[in-house]
Amino acid sequence: MVWPVPAMGSARRDFTYPSPISNPKELSRYYIAVLRGVKGKILAMRCLRLTHVNVRVQNLEDAVRFYGTVMGLDPIPRRDTKGKGAWFRLGDTEVHLAEDPASQPRSKRHFAVEVADLAEARRTAGEHGAEIDQEEAGRFWMRDPSGNRIEVVQAP
Question: Taking the domains of the chain in order of start, what are their residue ranges?
Fold first, then answer.
């Protein structure tokens, strides 16, 4: 079976019901078949929540100190033992650190955290020598010791 080039679609009317393919094993997780020359549509899964973010760090000790001391995250036990890493609790989500000594290119990819007091968070980051990448009203971006970018946002 040849899968079509996907076209964005999210409304129920974008999909054909019932599916022309009766065997679920023939369906991709994301696409349905082309019908009469109409491009395929994305068949979205139903994501419930973000469980964790995995962050590559060059030096685990420096990263553990940063995420625990600067960001105030609570360490939690790791449920895996592969590689060198550490896990932290952040609300209902976890931040996983995985040590990889290879240098990483700097980029703007990031994750964001919400804080109760942005001015206090900015002051704490500065006192600990965190690199502040960018600042604007209601938020700032900082880098962890490995150069990973973190957006810090004022809670509403």
Answer: 1-47, 52-154
Rounded CA gap, 75 and 68, in Å? Answer: 7
For residue 85, the number of C-alpha atoms closer than 13 Å in the C-beta half-sphere is 20
**Cα(56)–Cα(54) distance, integer angstroms:** 7
- HSE-CB at 50 with a 13 A cutoff on CA atoms is 13
**Using one digit for the tens of pLDDT, what is the confidence trace for 47-57?**
889 999 999 99
Please say whether the structural domain 52-154 has been given the CATH code 3.40.50.150.
Answer: no
Say if residues 44 and 10 touch (Cβ distance below 8 Å).
yes
Q: Alpha-carbon distance 127 to 141, whole Å?
A: 15
Q: Helix, strand, or coil here: 78?
A: coil
DSSP 3-state of 29? coil
Output the pTM of the full model.
0.71
Asked if residues 50 and 91 have their Cβ atoms less than 8 Å apart, the reply is no
